[in-house]
Amino acid sequence: MNDQAPVTEAQKIRPVPTLPDAQTVTEVKHWTDRLFSFRVTRPASLRFRSGEFVMIGLMGDPDPKTGKQKPLLRAYSIASPSWDEELEFYSIKVQDGPLTSKLQHIQPGDEIILRPKPVGTLVHDALLPGKRVWFFATGTGIAPFASLLRDPQTYEDYEEVIITHTCREAGELQYGAELIENIKSDELLRELIGDENLAKLRYYPTTTREESPKMGRITDLIRSGELYKDLGVEPLSPETDRAMICGNLAFNLELKELLEEAGLEEGANSDPKHYVVEKAFLD
Ligand code: A2P
């Protein structure tokens, strides 16, 4: 006997979301076997500041005893700018990671869970006015900067905008390289940010385990002074420089130490200073 209620006409037209806080995947791009990015619909009421993160995820496996499913959520920086109609995320794929082992298989039309409560420290409000802003990233830590670099305020606030991105292999730089290329060539972005402002943007990619035009950890390149020489800029100083850091834990700590040695102090939303740090999602 079939005891399922018949599907009503209204249900056919407007399917009931299967997940709480559901958003629909609109695009997925696989960059390497370890990295992918995806775009999802944006809740109409979601407002965020470029650089912030939200909790996103999928339903976990059913509990073997109760059969109940719980949401499996992780913090993800929003990689799209605050004016974008959709939301973009950039993620690592960990084959035995609880979330990313599943998330890496999403397809357009699938649903993910997105809790619409953006927070984070990598925001302009947490920095005092300065002349030059540095965005230091490793791996997927470039995500919040993908948002900030498409935000006109970044260029309005500073005379120079420098993004450094360090990855193990050259293929892992691709997302960032295309982002920078796109910012400089996309008609809409050029119109929004302005060519004069875009001239302030400098991109400094490096690799550590595979040959590329610039090799080395950014921390070593700072210590040796090579970074400043390559860019033709003065060393970091609290009078002129502001910085945001996002990468793996060891990198964050080492860079923090270097900035402190240079006299920069850590800021927060409630107490803006010279630099801010956030850990990139790792799972
Ligand atoms: P390395 O290859 O020398 O470890 P991961 O993929 O492990 O998150 O690393 C991303 C990038 O960050 C790699 O190029 C890695 O270099 C670099 N990295 C890791 N730890 C540090 C650190 N303490 N300081 C600077 N760079 C680091």
From TrEMBL:
Q: Which Pfam families match?
A: NAD_binding_1
Q: Which PROSITE patterns match?
A: FAD_FR
The keyword Flavoprotein appears for this protein: yes
Catalyses which reaction(s): 2 reduced [2Fe-2S]-[ferredoxin] + NADP(+) + H(+) = 2 oxidized [2Fe-2S]-[ferredoxin] + NADPH
- Judged by the first EC level, this protein's enzyme class is oxidoreductase
Molecular function via GO? ferredoxin-NADP+ reductase activity; nucleotide binding
| Requisite cofactors | FAD
Q: Cite the InterPro entries for this sequence.
A: FAD-bd_FR_type (IPR017927), FNR_bac (IPR033892), FNR_nucleotide-bd (IPR039261), FNR_type-1 (IPR051930), OxRdtase_FAD/NAD-bd (IPR001433), Riboflavin_synthase-like_b-brl (IPR017938)
Q: Name one GO biological process term.
A: cellular response to oxidative stress
Alphabetized UniProt keyword annotations: FAD, Flavoprotein, NADP, Nucleotide-binding, Oxidoreductase
Which residues does the UniProt record annotate as the domain FAD-binding FR-type? 18-125
Q: What is its EC number?
A: 1.18.1.2
What is stated as this protein's family in its record? Belongs to the ferredoxin--NADP reductase type 1 family.
* Name under which the protein is recorded: ferredoxin--NADP(+) reductase
This protein's species is Maritimibacter harenae
